[in-house]
Design brief:
Layout lengths: L4 H10 L1 E7 L5 E4 L2 E4 L7 H11 L2 H10 L1 E8 L3 E10 L2 E10 L5 H4 L3 H6 L5 E6 L6 H15 L3 E6 L12 E6 L7 H8 L6 E4 L5 H11 L4 E6 L4 H11 L5 H11 E11 L6 E9 L2 H8 L6 H6 L9 H10 L5 H7 L3 H4 L13
Parallel strand pairs: 7-11, 7-12, 8-9, 8-10, 10-11
Antiparallel strand pairs: 1-2, 1-6, 2-3, 4-5, 5-6, 12-13
Helix pairs in contact: 7-8, 10-11
Length: 359
């Protein structure tokens, strides 16, 4: 058993989402959003490096020594998978491990809105799940892929860096590919995927122009593409995609997005106050004909109000979603205020509202 496995089992037992372990510091767990130190002596660089290298593939060690950064997946059978990131810092090496449960939480268990299950049954188009790091994007996507796996008979290809949730083939054939292990890059894997008879393609992250271009192309040529972006709202997601392209291509990209984009989910995680754990609030944009026109005409500034009036299509604003979980008593008014868009809407709910300058 690797020395780090003891920490991973501690993560599993305490329900920690992340393990931070760096030279000169005792290990730290993130439990329900809070950082908690482990009662363990600080590790020096040499001993920590030995522990980290014990679980890393040889190729990943070489990459880490050459570049100072590397990502990969590590699994303890029947316990959990972990997404590992190694990095160099001022006092030596460091690593962060994110726990990925071996059991996939279903869409029903997560309480995902019905429109997301419908999205998993689409035959073509682009479905984006966005939000800041650690907002649960991978968990939401895994639940949607799981729903497709159970209710369709198709070919699913996932392209990730590293592989996170591992799906067991049910109705679908599923192939998992890891960037750096099974393919050189997201873009090269996507290019290859288009020749591998896929019905559904999951792109772990649309990081660069070429990947975004190929994902849009796939979505507009009869494939269902799921992908993530680090954006905080549906409108900003659309702007981000368009702005990646050169100015002379942006009109064409707007046209492609107006027909190819189907759903955008922008989510945030909140610490629960009624029990241990966290819950998500989701902004949902469904690309109706009216939304498509706004995208085509470059009027994305009007999208928030279009979401507000599109509830019959399954749309909801982030603020409405936050208000929903607040009214259930799941989250605090202070955190709702901190992460909402319209501060004035939530301000009256605070016991001690902040000064106007501190909003």
């Amino acid at each position: 058993m690797a020395k780090l496995d003891a920490f991973f089992k501690l993560m599993f037992d305490t329900g920690a989402s992340d393990l931070h372990i760096v030279s000169g510091q005792p290990p730290i767990l993130r439990v329900h959003g809070d950082m908690e130190r482990v009662k363990y002596d600080p590790l020096d660089d040499e001993n920590l490096r030995q522990m980290l290298y014990e679980i890393a593939p040889e190729q990943k060690i070489k990459t880490f020594e050459e570049t100072g950064d590397v990502d990969f997946g590590y699994e303890i059978p029947n316990v959990a998978r972990f997404r590992a990131n190694y990095f160099m810092q001022k006092y030596g090496c460091g690593a962060v491990f994110r726990q990925i449960p071996t059991k996939i939480i279903t869409a029903d268990e997560l309480g995902l809105p019905p429109i997301l299950k419908k999205s998993a049954m689409l035959h073509k188009g682009l479905v984006l799940v966005t939000g800041p790091t650690g907002s649960g994007k991978s968990t939401t996507l895994a639940a949607m892929i799981d729903h497709a796996n159970k209710h369709r008979k198709d070919h699913i290809i996932t392209i990730e860096d590293p592989i996170e949730f591992v799906h067991t083939a049910q109705g679908c054939l599923i192939n998992h590919r890891e960037v750096g292990m099974h393919t050189r890059s997201f873009s090269s894997a996507l290019r290859g995927a288009l020749r591998e008879d896929p019905d559904i393609i999951l792109v772990g992250e649309m990081r660069d122009l070429e990947t975004i271009r190929l994902a849009l192309e796939a979505a507009n040529t009869g494939h269902l593409v799921f992908a993530t972006l680090h954006t905080t709202s549906a409108a900003k997601t659309i702007d981000r995609i368009i702005e990646v392209f050169p100015a002379e291509e942006q009109a064409q990209v707007r046209n492609g997005l107006s027909t190819g984009l189907k759903v955008v989910v922008a989510q945030n995680l909140f610490k629960r106050v009624d029990k241990k754990g966290r819950c998500a609030a989701l902004e949902i944009l469904v690309c109706t004909a009216a939304i498509g026109n706004l995208i085509r005409e470059g009027k994305t500034v009007q999208i928030p109000s279009a979401i507000q009036t599109g509830k019959q299509y399954g749309m909801q604003t982030l603020d409405d979603a936050i208000m929903g979980v607040l009214q259930k008593g799941w989250i605090s008014a202070e955190e709702a205020y901190d992460k909402c868009i319209d501060k004035q809407k939530f301000r009256p709910l605070l016991k001690t509202p902040p000064d106007e300058l501190n909003q």
